């Protein structure tokens, strides 16, 4: 049986094994997909062991995505630009690393939520690995202006520089957001977590048809989503859909077929409710 896994810390509550099993069932593919906990200091060894034991594909989550990029023999474009990897594919005696997070976010918004990204004025909160992973895909999907705000402003500047499209993507001070106008899409890529106090944001950011999207899901997303709903956002969604869509992109890379994600969205939402 071919072996697959997701690596992270913590990893016990990961939805990825269930998602991949669901996809595999759609095609009658038999595979083994485990959740494997690894601390950063042990990850290189644990991954080598996994390969030695027949592991041919893996997903990578926090806090190992940057480290995973450093362990790859080959990187896809999105992974190279982000400096982070969420999908590993065995190639000969090395790993190829891809980052399907941005693609997953865009697919969740366009295919699953049925919304058009083109022309949307977008605010990206955060400038860490998660923000780097989704910014290029949002720009490729045709959003209008991308404003990046981060608690530590130097990191927002660095991300804007890295994107290198000064006419479309630029940074703004967090403290200055009250004067940044209204947005059509607000993406929370911070790890600020629970409690709306963690993200003291002005409601003037919420445009009339604003979609608020938190890249996290579950408890970690509650603070931002509560802020969005109380401010009257048209839609406030967590990152469970993005998780499903990035898993589908990984599955497609490994098995050459894209699974139908709709039944998995329904099943996981039903379980979360
Ligand atoms: P990741 O790779 O998951 O993005 P990270 O690189 O540690 O993780 O980045 C976490 C992000 O959350 C950063 O943008 C961080 O802001 P700083 O760069 O200023 O640290 C942001 N963040 C974490 N806690 C926050 C808080 N309480 N308020 C606002 N931003 C916060």
UniProtKB/TrEMBL annotation:
Binding site for shikimate: 14-16, 61, 86, 101, 217, 246
Amino-acid biosynthesis as UniProt keyword: yes
Lineage: superkingdom: Bacteria
Segments forming domain Shikimate dehydrogenase substrate binding N-terminal: 6-88
EC number: 1.1.1.25
SUPFAM superfamilies tied to this protein: Aminoacid dehydrogenase-like, N-terminal domain, NAD(P)-binding Rossmann-fold domains
Keywords (A to Z) from UniProt: Amino-acid biosynthesis, Aromatic amino acid biosynthesis, NADP, Oxidoreductase
GO molecular function: NADP binding; shikimate 3-dehydrogenase (NADP+) activity
Keyword Oxidoreductase annotated: yes
Reactions that this protein is recorded to catalyse: shikimate + NADP(+) = 3-dehydroshikimate + NADPH + H(+)
GO (cellular component) term, any one: cytosol
Every SDH C-terminal domain range: 239-269
Residues where NADP(+) binds: 77, 126-130, 150-155, 215, 239
Matching InterPro entries: Aminoacid_DH-like_N_sf, NAD(P)-bd_dom_sf, SDH_C, Shikimate_DH, Shikimate_DH-bd_N, Shikimate_DH_fam, Shikm_DH/Glu-tRNA_Rdtase
Quinate/shikimate 5-dehydrogenase/glutamyl-tRNA reductase domain residues: 114-192
Pathway membership, UniProt: Metabolic intermediate biosynthesis; chorismate biosynthesis; chorismate from D-erythrose 4-phosphate and phosphoenolpyruvate: step 4/7
Active site: residue positions: 65 (proton acceptor)
One of the protein's GO biological processes: shikimate metabolic process
PANTHER family found in the cross-reference section: BIFUNCTIONAL 3-DEHYDROQUINATE DEHYDRATASE_SHIKIMATE DEHYDROGENASE, CHLOROPLASTIC, SHIKIMATE DEHYDROGENASE
Self-association and partners: Homodimer.
Similarity-based family: Belongs to the shikimate dehydrogenase family.
Cited function: Involved in the biosynthesis of the chorismate, which leads to the biosynthesis of aromatic amino acids. Catalyzes the reversible NADPH linked reduction of 3-dehydroshikimate (DHSA) to yield shikimate (SA).
Record's protein name: Shikimate dehydrogenase (NADP(+))
């Amino acid at each position: 049986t071919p072996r697959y896994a997701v690596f992270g810390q913590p990893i016990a509550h990961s939805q990825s094994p269930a998602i991949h099993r669901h996809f595999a069932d759609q095609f009658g593919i038999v595979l083994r997909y485990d959740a494997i906990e690894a601390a950063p200091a042990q990850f290189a060894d644990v991954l080598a062991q996994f390969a030695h034991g027949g592991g041919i594909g893996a997903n990578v989550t926090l806090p190992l995505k940057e480290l995973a990029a450093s362990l790859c023999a080959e990187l896809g474009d999105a992974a190279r630009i982000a400096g982070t990897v969420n999908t590993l594919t065995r190639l000969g005696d090395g790993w190829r690393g891809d980052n399907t997070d941005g693609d997953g976010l865009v697919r969740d918004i366009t295919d699953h939520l049925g919304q058009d990204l083109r022309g949307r004025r977008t605010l990206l909160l955060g400038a860490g690995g998660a923000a780097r992973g989704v910014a290029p895909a949002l720009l490729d999907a045709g959003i209008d202006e991308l404003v990046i705000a981060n608690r530590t402003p130097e990191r927002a500047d660095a991300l804007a520089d890295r994107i290198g499209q000064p006419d479309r993507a630029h940074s703004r001070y967090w403290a200055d957001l009250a004067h940044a106008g209204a947005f059509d899409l607000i993406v929370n890529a911070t790890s600020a977590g629970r409690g709306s106090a963690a993200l003291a944001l002005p409601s003037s950011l919420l445009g009339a048809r604003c979609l608020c999207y938190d890249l996290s899901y579950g408890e970690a997303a509650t603070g931002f989503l509560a802020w969005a709903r109380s401010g009257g956002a048209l839609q406030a969604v967590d990152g469970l859909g993005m998780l499903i869509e990035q898993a589908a992109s990984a599955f497609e890379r490994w098995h050459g077929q894209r699974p139908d994600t709709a039944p998995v969205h329904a099943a996981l939402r039903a379980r979360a409710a």
